[in-house]
Every structure is written in C-alpha cells, then in structure tokens.
Amino acid sequence: MSDQIINLTYLAAAVFFIMGLKGLGRPRTAVRGNLLCAIGMLIAIVVTLLDARIIGFGTIIAGVAVGGLIGLVLAVKIEMTAMPQLVAVFNALGGGASVLVAGSELISADPEAGTTLYALAWAVSATGIIGSITFWGSMVAFAKLQGLVSDKAGRISGRNIINIILGLAALGLAAWLGANPTATWAYGALALVSAVLGLTMVLPIGGADMPVVIALLNSLSGLACSTAGFVFNNNGLIISGSLVGASGLILTQIMCKAMNRSLGSVLFGKMQAAASDGPTADAIYEGKIKAAGAEEIAMLLET
C-alpha cells in the first residue's frame, strides 16, 4: 500500500474523529459521536495492519483477542459511577504503551542513521517523559478514586521543590539522549525519573480536584500518542493524539473555571482546605434555601 493511500486513509479517520468529538458535545448526539470515533479508530487500525511494514499478524491477533476480551468484560461489569476510574486506567494504558513502543523503536534503530537518529532520539525522549508521567499519575488517580489510597497520602513538605528537581533531571536526561542517541540507558533512567515525578505530582491531590487531574492526564495521554507518531513517522498517531491532547486541555480549563480554581493551584497549591479554614455548609446556605413543589421542579427540568 502506497504512502499516499495510507495518509489519505488516516485523513479520513481524522475526519471521523472530529465529527465524533463534535457529537460528544451534546447528550442527544453523544451515542452517534462515540460510534463515529469508533469507526475512525477502526479505519486507522485496519490501514496500519495493511501497511507493508507489518511483519506478522500472529502476535497482533493474539493481542487483539486478549484486549478485546478484557474490554468486553469491563464494558459489562463496570458501573457508571466507576467511569472516572475506568477513564484513568485508559489514560494509563495510552501513556504506558507510548513509552514501550518508543523505547523499542530507539533500541532497534540503526546506529548509522545520522541526523535521522538524532531526531528520533528527541521524539523518543518527549514520548518517554509524557508517557511515563501519564501512566503512573493515572494509576495513582485510579487508586485514589477507588479508595485504595488515602487522600492524605504523599503530602510531604517541599514536594513542589522535589517535583522541580525531578522535572529538571528528566529534561537533562532527555538532552543527554538527544545528543547521544545510542545511550539507550538514558531512556530507561528518563522513564524512571518521570515515573517518580508522576507519582509525586498526583499523590497529594484528592477530593474535588481529582476530575481536573483526570482531564489533564487524558490530555497528556494524547500528547504522548502524538509524540509517538513522530517516532514512527505515523500521521494517524500525530493527528489523533493532537485531537485528544487539545480536547483534554480544553476540558481541563473548563473544569477549572467551573470550580473557580486555577490549574496551578490544583497541581501545586493546597488541594483541600481544612474544615476550619472557611465557613461551614450550614453558614453558607442559611437563609438561601427555597422550597419548591413537584410541578415547579418538573417545569425546571423540562426547561
């Protein structure tokens, strides 16, 4: 299959993604939007499998069978109230997959590729940082939403300074790998440092701020997918990852505005105020509660 046909097919898949995202913006069209996104993903998967660079289908078919079975069980068993946890796991899987495939591409790269190898190393570095933070941060978010980890976990003094040091270390390793693409150990170290950064960033966050973090991690999983697209020179990954990253970032901004919070205060500030820091709920709503009958409620809901 020629590159022109492949890219045109990826473009068609991107159109389905965009139409699907537009449909997901309204409850009445959400089901159709979800279906359009699924069709776009199916097109992208099929054209990738038909690409001449696919060596064998045995392992791919086995992976599709196992993943499809797991997805079917989750779709049937997961309650709607547990949907945020499921989204967190999906984000984690996207970030983790990006880290693994980018690392494998770096290991199998031709050491004599010249400037192409250096460009690959920089793309792999970006994928490793974003993907590793996304995976471990999302797993922490899942554990906290599921009640496996307490909201008080990870609250250590000076954590922002620790995060800055970890971030600078990850960037330094990325620069080293970019300058020395054959030093594959730097990628492992980079992924490890980024993993610790993902843990220390999300562990202290809890309560009402967690949905904002889930939306941000969703955006990061899309960015990891997009950078992986540069690793493999795959336009389908670049387009779909950019769409997920942009939409997730917009959702994060909307949620922060609705909660009257800034993203910086969510990630770096005080996550939950103590009960003594402000007025109680009784003081806030005293004299403001208005009674309404069933007919009035029905009119409001109809409107």
| Helix proportion | over 70%
Number of helices: 12
Radius of gyration: 22 Å
Global structural class: mainly alpha
Helix-strand string: HHHHHHHHHHHH
Architecture overview:
The chain has 303 residues and is an all-alpha fold. The chain is 74% helix and 0% strand. The protein is built from twelve helices and no strands. The protein has helices at 3-23, 30-49, 58-77, 83-107, 115-145, 159-179, 184-202, 210-232, 235-258, 263-268, 281-285, 294-302. Mean pLDDT is 82; it is low at 271-277.
Structure at a glance:
This protein is an all-alpha fold and 303 residues long.
Topology:
Blueprint lengths: L2 H21 L6 H20 L8 H20 L5 H25 L7 H31 L13 H21 L4 H19 L7 H23 L2 H24 L4 H6 L12 H5 L8 H9 L1
Features:
mainly alpha; 303 residues; 12 helices; globular; 0% strand
